[in-house]
Amino acid sequence: MNKTRLEAITDGVIAIVITVMLIELKVPEGIHFSDLTQEFHGILSYVLSFMYIGIYWINHHHLFQLVEKVNGKIIWINLHLIFWLTMIPYTTSWSAQSNYSPVPTALYAFILFMCSLSYAMLEWSIARAQGDKSVVRKVLGKDKKLAISVLLYAMSILLSLVDTRLSLLVLVVLAVLWFFPNKRIEQYCEEK
């Protein structure tokens, strides 16, 4: 099957997710910069979640530059990733409104963990479907960064129950780690 419909639905859903997150932001009551402090958690959560959505969109785009065709399994796993991405606005809003209380922050971390796990499953299923000598396997190899990230996301869930600041710190570090797309994919696409 052609990959363009899969990419189109993913792009569309991601655009909607970003819009929903923006709608969730509350406009301050007053007209001064100090009035923004009341919405500090909401703005901070929006920025972090926007970064995550952007990171998934960019990395998804880069990954699919290596893919020629998709099968039903890849489509379903991509839909699985989309499902978890659509949950980000809900948990972003709840964790911010709760001032990062343990349970809402743990759920936020869990959703990000599931996004990372889904993305890893997508990478693995593409590599498996394309075969041992495929471009995907050649360029990605064993994606250690992705495997370590999945573990760190899982750790952030547990940390949120101990100290939400530690959990958020791990999530920020992971966002910074993934901010730059896979260099091997970019190099391959430039050489191509």
UniProtKB/TrEMBL annotation:
Give UniProt keywords alphabetically: Ion channel, Ion transport, Membrane, Potassium, Potassium channel, Potassium transport, Transmembrane, Transmembrane helix, Transport
What's its catalytic activity? K(+)(in) = K(+)(out)
| Major location category of this protein | membrane
UniProt keyword Membrane present: yes
GO CC terms of this entry: membrane
- Signal peptide positions on this chain: none
Q: Which GO MF terms are attached to this record?
A: potassium channel activity; proton channel activity
> Which is a Pfam family this sequence falls into?
TMEM175
InterPro entries the UniProt entry points to? TMEM175-like (IPR010617)
**What topology does it adopt in the membrane?**
Multi-pass membrane protein
User: Which parts pass through the membrane?
Assistant: 12-28, 40-58, 70-87, 107-126, 147-180
Compartment annotation: Membrane
Q: Does the keyword Hydrolase apply?
A: no
Q: What PANTHER family does this protein map onto?
A: ENDOSOMAL/LYSOSOMAL POTASSIUM CHANNEL TMEM175, ENDOSOMAL_LYSOSOMAL PROTON CHANNEL TMEM175
Homology family: Belongs to the TMEM175 family.
Q: What is this protein called?
A: DUF1211 domain-containing protein
